[in-house]
Design goal:
The chain is mainly beta. Helix content is 10%, strand content 43%. The chain contains 3 helices and 18 strands. The strands form 4 sheets. Strands 2-8-7-4-5 form a 5-stranded mixed sheet, with no helix packed on it. Strands 9-18-17-16-14 form a 5-stranded antiparallel sheet. The radius of gyration is 26 Å and the shape is elongated. The N and C termini lie far apart (77 Å).
Length: 275
């Protein structure tokens, strides 16, 4: 048995060695409108990449382009190849919303099993435009059952029932609760933060809300509670829309004291880019 040990050790170490097969190369072309490095891009606008790949062996297997931001990933291209080299342009509409950091990864897979990748990060910014204003909406205690306890900011729609993705604002009171929780959440991953009264005065453009978001993004939470009249809230909608920031002003808080009367509500005005 003592003589067999070195042989076993030798065999085990061979399996850990990296493959000596040559790797493919992949790069992004420069010049003109081509994006080859990380940069700021206006969300929803066209971008273009020049992709160059060369096999390390006789032929490529495929080239892939994937995008990732937040919790989302998307395969943009996955093309089979039999050539040794490829050079092509790929244009697309920039993914993500203002404030997202979208990582585009370009991967060359060789016919010999090896691969190489390169990536760029596009930071999404908004196009400068004025916000639209809406007023006089209400979100009721969820225990009211027959009154709107959710709101769709993009479509300016009070919601009694509907799919979760529509619900940018959702009253979080448990249906069985005796008292109103005065808590907002959402059905789609929206986040909230209280901001200054002056932000309502100045918050009339996409640029202002974007800069306000950048200054407060680490403070944003999935629920917000105990709002008072004249409170100002920045909301980042969980919807997949190009500009998903809204500013909300609480104009009335009606908290009915009688147990069993669940028609409590927050009334509010707001601004944003609407459908």
């Amino acid at each position: 048995m003592a003589l067999a040990l070195p042989s076993l050790i030798f065999l085990g170490s061979c399996g850990d060695e990296a493959s000596s097969d040559p790797k493919p190369t992949i790069s992004l072309g420069t010049g003109g409108a081509f994006i080859s490095a990380s940069k700021d891009v206006v969300a929803g606008t066209a971008v273009i990449f020049n992709v160059k790949a060369t096999a390390g062996s006789g032929a490529m297997k495929n080239v892939q382009i994937k995008a990732a931001w937040g919790t989302q990933t998307k395969t943009i291209l996955d093309t089979a190849l039999t050539t040794k080299e490829i050079n092509f342009n790929r244009s697309l509409i920039a993914l993500g919303a203002a404030g997202d950091e979208v990582v585009y990864t370009f991967t060359a897979n060789d016919g010999n099993g090896q691969s190489s990748s390169t990536s760029v990060t596009l930071s999404m910014t908004p196009a400068m435009t004025s916000l639209e204003g809406q007023s006089g909406f209400k979100v009721y205690n969820a225990s009211s059952i027959t009154l709107p306890s959710a709101f769709d900011l993009y479509n300016a729609q009070e919601i009694i029932s509907g799919t979760s993705v529509e619900k940018d604002i959702l009253d979080k009171t448990a249906i069985s609760a005796a008292q109103w929780s005065k808590t907002w959440g959402s059905g789609n991953g929206s986040t909230f933060v209280k901001v200054a009264a002056n932000d309502w005065v100045n918050g009339t453009s996409t640029t202002y809300l974007f800069n306000l978001y950048k200054a407060n993004k680490t403070k944003m939470t999935e629920t917000i509670t105990s709002l008072a009249k004249d409170d100002i809230i920045l909301v980042r909608s969980g919807k997949d829309i190009t500009f998903n920031l809204f500013i909300v002003k609480i104009t009335a808080v009606v908290d009915l004291p009688a147990i069993g009367n669940h028609n409590d509500y927050y009334q509010f005005d707001y601004r944003g880019i609407l459908k």
